[in-house]
Amino acid sequence: MTTRVELRKVQVLGPTSSKFDDPIRMHLVLEVFEKPPKDAIDVTFTWSPVWDFPVDQELDEMEVGPLTTLGRHEFTIESDPPNVADIPDPTGPTALIVSLKYKGQEFLHIGYNIIVTCDGDLPDVFTSTEQLTRHIGMCYPKVRHIAWDEATSAAQSFSDSSSESTSESGEGTTKRAKRERAVQS
């Protein structure tokens, strides 16, 4: 019997257009089939501007689970916003990447298109986020098959077009995600 975890839904909570320094909140629904994984799942948020210079920021990381039962598991996860002082020009296209890993192996990669706009004149150096608005766009989940608790590993990936993903209204370095509900099959 093998472990299989699938993304059923991911939704941005709150408005898709918000202040740059607002926390980023998401609701995830994962479904566990056949055999629950033994350990917790690591979740990492990364802010990745689409430029040539390296300014990626790991915004937050937390643990989800362990998911000890079969069936659906719903979580609300929240990330700190990016530090504008570490980004030479925060305006323009950006990616928000939410990565879910089990024992160091990524099994789910959720990417969002982000556009950051500035109200008024662009300053030479951004020292404040007062003029900045972030707009969260389309979601692109990618599922990877991994060896969960087996001795062998597999890393085949494919896009998961069956999962529902939406972007609609609605601290520290190690956190625990808020577990909302686990419904046993």
UniProtKB/TrEMBL annotation:
Where in this protein does the record put region Disordered?
A: 154-185
Predominant location of this chain?
nucleus
Question: Where located?
Answer: Nucleus
> A GO CC term?
chromatin
Cite the InterPro entries for this sequence: ASF1-like, ASF1-like_sf
Q: Which GO terms describe its biological process?
A: DNA replication-dependent chromatin assembly
Residue spans of biased composition, Low complexity class:
154-172
> Which Pfam family, an example, fits this chain?
ASF1_hist_chap
Q: Name one GO molecular function term.
A: histone binding
Keyword terms of this UniProt record = Chaperone, Nucleus, Transcription, Transcription regulation
Q: Which family is annotated?
A: Belongs to the ASF1 family.
Q: What is this protein called?
A: ASF1 like histone chaperone
- Name its species: Leishmania naiffi
